[in-house]
């Protein structure tokens, strides 16, 4: 009987361990595998990940009822929207011993004053990734948004270009090319951006926010509009595969989007205590640095800098200097009327 009881207790214990899980909703390819493994070992749990490739996709899933993730990694404008909808738990700062590692310039932002609900995870820029040999051969300047929007330039690379399947990102790029702010809500300017996109659309291979890393790496496309961290990965993958071409990436001279991604805990989180452990873990300098060294993100963690590889710190598209930063903008949350207009213009783009 005693032996049976011991087996029962052991089975229950093992079942409880198997059931302990952190449910993470994150961008594609946005955490190092070794980081996940270390957290699992430290907390004695399993990290279960779901992924999204656009803010609209993430918001739609959360607001449709899938709000029981423990940690979500939204960009600043999505944080603002989630806070307004009462979707997030306030963070218990007493359980975040690594909070002091965050650089002051990334705290107390307008989208979450006092960081009541969110803490910085990483930042990226949205830029141009390209096949160096092909673009040089064609004499095209990759550091200009004309490589995405000018039919005269696109004629040389027709069918070899992808753009993000993300209305905020694509409209942001078009507005920058036209000389406007990415947060311009003037209907006339937005329609001007729509017209620009529609003229360029026949030259693009696809709207693609999820697989452009692979397409660029294998040479199926020569130009991609996407995130700096993804382009960093594409460059590494092409080199590791021994391709006869190299992948590079650059911030367009007209300016671009700077995205500050954050860690938040939904009110419906299954394991809020485990979520706080994960957030604190990711703010430890070595773990934050690994995000940059492996994934290629910009890093809001000041204590992580000594652990970041020097050659990555030198990449201006990942760590833009003060002069370049002046050309970058973060996406602000739009009100309901502005969202309806953007959605209408975006739908018209996709169906034509």
The average pLDDT score comes to 94
Largest sheet: 7 strands, mixed
Strand share of the residues?
A: 15-25%
Secondary-structure content class: alpha/beta
Please give the number of β-strands. 10
Low-confidence stretches: 1-17
Q: Report helical residue fraction.
A: 40-55%
Radius of gyration: 22 Å
The count of helical stretches stands at 16
The SSE order reads HEHEHEHEHHHEHHEHEHEEHHHHEH
Molecular shape: globular
The termini sit apart by: 73 Å
Explain what this protein looks like in three dimensions:
This protein starts with a helix and ends with a helix. It is built from 16 helices and 10 strands. It has 352 residues and is α/β, with parallel strands linked by helices. The strands form 2 sheets. Strands 4, 5, 6, 7, 8, 9 and 10 form a 7-stranded mixed β-sheet that branches. It has a 3-stranded parallel β-sheet with strand order 2-1-3. The radius of gyration is 22 Å and the shape is globular. Strand 1 (21-27), helix 2 (33-43) and strand 2 (46-52) form a beta-alpha-beta unit.
